[in-house]
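#onboarding

Welcome to the new folks! Below is a worked example of what a typical request in this channel looks like: someone posts a single protein sequence, and someone else replies with the predicted structure as tokens. Don't worry about understanding the tokens yet, we'll cover that in week two.

Example request:
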Amino acid sequence: MSLTSSDVQRIATLARIELDADEAARTLEQLNAVFGLIEKLQSVDTTGVEPMTHARELALRLRDDAVTEPDRRDDYQAVAPAVERGLYLVPRVIE
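Example response:
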């Protein structure tokens, strides 16, 4: 796939970007280079290649999914003006 200069002008118009002739020509060249790279990548046979999360073999540093903070809800709600069944009660502001 490649774009034409009228395609670039149309995209610029839709994006509300003003391009002069030199910028349009440079943009056309850059966009066609990107499309060329995409076509090149799509032509590579990846059959049998396992999907990877990173280009290098890395071990993710993860911490245990464990609660480390104490439950202090009762302490925080002790100073609240109104609490019911563990929820803060606030005055109605929208009728």
